[in-house]
Known about the structure:
37% of the residues lie in helices and 26% in strands. By secondary structure, the protein is α/β, with parallel strands linked by helices. The chain has two domains: 1-81 and 156-241, Rossmann fold; 90-155, no CATH class. A hairpin with a 2-residue loop joins strand 9 (207-212) and strand 10 (215-221). The longest helix is centred in the last third of the chain and has 18 residues, at 170-187. 43% of the residues are buried.
Amino acid sequence: MTEPLLSIRGVKTYYGKIIALKGVDLDVNEGEIVTLIGANGAGKSTLMMTIFGSPRAREGKIVYQGSDISRMPTHEIARMRIAQSPEGRRIFPRMSVMENLQMGAAINDFAHMDEDLKRVFDLFPRLKERINQRGGTLSGGEQQMLAIARALMSRPKLLLLDEPSLGLAPLVVKLIFDAIRDLNRTEGLSVFLVEQNAFHALKLAHRGYVMVNGVITMSGSGKELLERPEVRAAYLEGGRH
């Protein structure tokens, strides 16, 4: 059996003396979309940040493409073809759309700049229309598109997406999830998605995990988890956002 692209084993992360992740095991295989759902404060974003080395895992191992990255500096992890679109979109607000995208391309020394610009503009035509506009003046949805596009400019093998639908209108959420599905289907991009919008995330994902208070409590295919009564009761009742 082939090794997972990303393998997390027994990871514990602390903030000071408070334990945020209590021994997490999780895999992302090549070409998969894997989602992690859970309530606010469950530890989902902490896991995403721990993969990138900030905060560091106090115990356990994070192995990416056969290399243990759990002690590596963040900038070195970024050069290993892992890209992150963090929670809250964190684009550079004073820079133009173009300059934000150049920041993404800088990770691999602008090797395929023109080709990659075309690729992200095909995916998000709105960004092309806003190419000289400052990031901070874009709508929330456009900022989210820019955050994902900037991550894609580094040509990742693994894309980490933290709450891409947060605070966005349903139409924009659909557009962003469709773009993720397209990238996975056409390019085989592996995606690890942290989402509170469980319905959309599980419909999109090949496999999913449920996190409660820093512990993985359930896992299965996206379809299986969508059908589990306890998942429906906790995360899906009262509308499908």
